[in-house]
Amino acid sequence: MTRAELTISGRVQGVFYRASAQEEGMRLGLRGEVRNLPDGKVEAIVEGPRERIEEFIAWCQRGPPAARVDDVQVRWSPAQGTFRSFTVAH
After folding, report:
1. Fewer Cβ in 10 A, N or C end of the chain?
2. Which of 11, 35, 36, 52 is catalytic?
C-alpha cells in the first residue's frame, strides 16, 4: 500500500472534476479524498496499491469531458491508513 498526493491544474473546477475523480477512485478500490484549492487547482490524496494509483493518475491527466488538464504533480509516500473511503472534501 502506498500514498500519492496529486495537484491537478488547468480548467478543473466547476466541471464535475471532483465528483468524477471520486467515482474513478471508488471504481479502482482506492481510499482518499479530493478537494478544490483556493488557487483554482484540485488536490487529490489517494491510498492503495501502486498500480491502481497509477491508473488513477492516468485518469486525472484526462479528467472528465468538460475539464482541461494542464499538469498533474505527484508526490509519493508510504500509506498512512487515514481514509476509510473516497470522499469529496468541501
Report:
1. C
2. 36
Whole-angstrom Cα distance, residue 61 to residue 19?
A: 15
pLDDT, tens digit (0-9, with 9 covering 90-100), for 33-58: 999 999 999 999 999 999 999 999 99
User: How crowded is the C-beta side of 61, counted as CA atoms within 13 Å?
Assistant: 8
For the question of residue 36 being annotated catalytic, the response is yes
> In angstroms, rounded to a whole number, what is the distance separating the alpha carbons of residues 53 and 86?
13
pTM over 0.90: yes
Whether the Cβ atoms of residue 20 and residue 54 lie closer than 8 Å to each other:
no
Q: Which residues contact 65 (CB under 8 A, 6 or more apart)?
A: none
CA atoms of 15 and 24, how far apart (whole Å): 15
Enumerate the domain spans of the chain: 2-79
Instruction: Please identify which of the residues 18, 50, 52, 75 carries the catalytic annotation.
Output: 18
Q: 67: which 3 cell numbers?
A: 475539464
